[in-house]
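Write out this protein's structure.
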Amino acid sequence: MSDGINQSLPLIDGHIHLPGREMCDKLLADLKYTGTRKFAVQNIGRSRHDPDGKGFRQALEMKQRMPEEVFVFGGLDFSDITDGAYKPRVPLVEQVQKLRDMGCDGLKLLTGKPDFRKFVGHPLDGALFEPMLKWAEETRFPVLWHVGDPPEFWSEHTVPPWARTRGWWYDSTVPKKKQIDEEIERVFLRHPKLNVTLPHFFFLSDRLDDAAKLLDTYPNYALDLAPGVEMYHNFTANHAKARAFFIKYADRILYGSDFGMGCGWGQDRGMMIRRFLETDDRFDVPEDPAMTPDERPKLHGLNLPADAVRKICVDNFVRRVGAKPRSLAADVDTLMKRWMV
């Protein structure tokens, strides 16, 4: 670890994914290398990419094997989509209630990611989601909701090189950023007390005044730091203001690494975040399939006070989700049978 990193900090990573089983040993080793003691697996549920829910089974199996360390945010069943129209067999509110009853610690939503928004075919503030969101608000059930993407991803000419090579940009058939922003704002107005964390800093790293307005308006909302590496460049470019923001809102920001991405990941993506939070170093973005090549200037760490770092890396997750993962209600085979109905 880099000088200046607090090696005794019992880090909680609130945002990882599970890769194929053959990569799980690497994932666990990289989490340990970063200093992570507990972590939250984010599962997007069933879809055309995982019609049998193998990813969810894997998440439950890891929670069963490591009951003191593993939180699971379960996903919804999006397998009933025909021609862009989603008509769930089981109402979404019943699905999320079942996830909680099974022993999941929260709900992962990807419905605000532009290509997934197109795939599902329903507005974020539409009637399909309303009963579920009302229930989540009333129960304070934790939600991690990916909404939007960096503005540069809406054109192949502005998307960063590492993303362009993977085809990670949006054509004219995908809802525009403005449309998604308007839909989610109506959700926020309707459900101001959601226990929601918006990952990737809600793509507001270049608009810190807007980020502050969001957090001031909705005291229950939080942001996480899972890369998009663009956010760390934006913070570096506005270093003094970013540092002041992180100190002021230290109780509203959560550490997350996005380890376990399907495209692969570099061992040092978590350490990049820690170094950025805890040191005054100037350093290059580490090699990572979802962050490099990157031709922008070096990152400049914020060197935050120790109490702010602890809030971001440990305390905020505990306050919003819990100190200890919820227990599974049955063995994994039994739970999967319940879930697949």
